[in-house]
Design goal:
20 helices, four-stranded antiparallel beta sheet, binds arginine, Gyrase A, domain 2, 13 strands, globular, alpha/beta
């Protein structure tokens, strides 16, 4: 249990022994010179029990034992207090050896996280990176708190691109068995690479936009793939497999590790069952099947949710409803989180309403849309390539890689690997740093600076700490001493449990980014003020090294929650 939670329990007991009922929160002090922490219950209790808050505060502090020092009452009844050195040292040793000391575990739910969302046979773009980074981090945080979490990439493997690519293949190999409707045997393996697909797709797309017949064919094929026409489905399945290996390699680079690799195509087989559940609420409108999802006090217009188009095919929303059906059946989750671009929020509000109204999910299952904002260029508009198309993720990574390469010493051992890890660290830290719902401006030079709120700054601090530890490697780490050079760092470490919990409850990794930045600042100040290696008092030196170990372990563990890999030298 964290020190904060443990102390809150202790304080709650005191309050109930005094005959009151109130939940205490121990928070960081707004005036650290008066005490590192404070509790503000005296004021709310005074109201509740019609007493003087100062009297209540005095009652409480009269019961406190020697775990606290410098206890005092300020203003109308704020109780300020600090932990004794003994308590601090014990807790710091715990934290050094076990990161779980910061974690007050939850009851343990089953949560599916839908993130990633790359589209088969198309390049990942910057929006896919946000989903990947945020999703992976909140998944790791939720796991840390004892939930059983399933990350699903939910591949966009159905849609126009199937028709595009198959129609293009038809031009290349018109006599292929895939197009013979009477053929019943096994199909050959196609001989295409992801590069080929990358050339075929734009070629098809340009042709289709200039030629109505071609567009008609693309639509027809797309529909038949969905309906399961054998040759088309098999050809498309092979194309998806080819592009999946490419998609996987990008997600590997971003340290994203999905538990399942389902896609929209996997949901297709559940559409009939899903429609059975929706049936009582469906009605026909202009040949399409729709469902009303209005609710009484709606402030904006909720048009009916279209489930089946007039040509009989499904919509994006239908496949998401079928995916919900599939997830309930396979995982029976307590919650499903969707890490998706803000611009799709309304689609999902519709889907969620449809799912609850029809009973596809019970009210007890929480469907949560975790939207994210846009990555903009310096001009404040969505980040684009020079020719105005959406920025492919690989190009974005290269932009950062160029900046980082300039900064890493030529003769550094394992240089390529360091550059790669630093590049990804730079990108991910910058991406996770702003609150997920807000847009941010992508500035490669700023993000890759070794100073400021950047990934390289954090990594540099860690590398510096690791290097001191390497040079003094024969000590037994133990913390048994606190002085004013390090007290602030220990207070910061005590605060981690609250920050971690906030990042978990709000699904906001940015809180952790801010936290390690502040921790690094405090450590760097200490490092600049004190010459650790030359400290002559051996016990002091040992404590400073142990503090360094503690800070390094903390940074490493938080980086791991952000899915950022560390380096040893830079
Ligand atoms: N493939 C979609 C896109 O690129 C994102 C998928 C999001 N997840 C979902 N369940 N629809 O926009």
């Amino acid at each position: 249990m964290s020190l904060i939670r443990d102390t809150e329990k202790y304080l709650n007991n005191i309050i109930s022994d005094l005959g009151y009922e109130e939940e205490v929160s121990l928070i960081s002090s707004s005036v650290p010179s008066l005490g590192k922490f404070q509790i503000n219950v005296a004021m709310s209790m005074a109201k509740k029990y019609h007493k003087n808050p100062i009297d209540i505060a005095n009652e409480i502090i009269s019961k406190l034992d020697n775990r606290f020092v410098n206890v005092n009452i300020a203003g109308p009844g704020f109780i300020n207090l600090s932990f004794s050195d003994n308590i601090i040292c014990n807790y710091m040793n715990d934290c050094m050896n076990n990161f779980n000391s910061h974690v007050d575990k939850d009851e343990g739910k089953t949560i599916v996280i839908d993130y990633g969302g790359a589209n088969a046979a198309k390049a990942l773009h910057v929006g896919h990176m946000r989903s990947a980074n945020i999703g992976e981090s909140i998944k790791r945080i939720a796991k840390l708190y004892g939930n059983s979490v399933i990350g699903d990439v939910h591949l966009g493997d159905l849609g126009r691109q199937a028709g595009m690519l198959i129609s293009e293949y038809m031009l290349m190999e018109p006599n292929s068995l895939f197009f013979d409707e009477n053929y019943l045997g096994d199909y050959p393996k196609i001989n295409l690479t992801t590069k080929d697909l990358g050339v075929m797709y734009p070629r098809a797309s340009i042709s289709a936009s200039n030629d109505d017949e071609r567009m008609k064919l693309v639509r027809e094929i797309t529909k038949e793939v969905e309906e399961g026409r054998r040759g088309y489905s098999e050809l498309w399945r092979q194309m998806v497999e080819i592009s999946k290996s490419d998609i996987k390699s990008v997600y590997d680079r971003l340290n994203c590790d999905f538990d399942v690799w389902y896609g929209e195509m996997d949901s297709i087989k559940y559409i009939p069952d899903t429609l059975n559940v929706l049936r009582p609420y469906l009605y026909e409108s202009d040949g399409a099947m729709v469902m009303d999802i209005k609710e009484e006090d709606d402030k904006k217009e909720y048009p009916p949710l279209m489930v089946i188009k007039s040509d009989g095919s499904s919509k994006y929303e239908t496949r998401d409803l079928a995916t919900i059906y599939m997830r309930m059946k396979e995982f029976n989750p307590d919650e499903i989180w969707y890490v998706i671009d803000n611009r799709q929020e309304f689609n999902f509000l519709q889907v969620f309403r449809g799912a609850y109204k029809s009973g596809l999910v019970p009210k007890s299952c929480k469907l949560d849309f975790l939207g994210f904002g846009t990555i903009n260029g310096i001009d404040g508009k969505p980040f684009k390539t020079r020719d105005g198309s959406v920025m492919p993720l690989n190009d974005l990574i290269e932009l950062i890689k160029n900046e980082i390469t300039k900064k890493v010493k030529e003769d550094l051992p394992d240089r390529d690997n360091v550059i790669e890890n630093l590049t990804i660290c730079t990108l991910k830290y910058a991406d996770l740093f702003s609150y997920r719902k807000t847009d941010y401006i992508f500035d490669p030079a700023k993000f890759s600076s070794f100073d400021g709120k950047t990934g390289p700054y954090i990594m540099y601090t860690l590398v510096r700490g690791k290097s001191i530890l390497r040079n003094n490697d024969s000590i037994k780490y133990n913390i048994d001493y606190v002085d004013d050079n390090i007290r602030n760092i220990y207070t910061k470490i005590i605060e981690l449990s609250s920050e971690l919990y906030k990042s978990y409850i709000n699904k906001s990794p940015n809180i952790l980014c801010e936290y390690i930045y502040n921790l690094c600042n405090l450590y760097n100040k200490f490092y600049n003020d004190i010459n650790i290696s030359n400290e002559r008092d051996l016990n002091k030196k040992n404590n400073y090294l142990s503090l360094t170990k503690l800070v390094c372990n903390t940074i490493s563990n938080v980086l791991n929650l952000l899915a950022i890999k560390e380096v040893d030298r830079m």
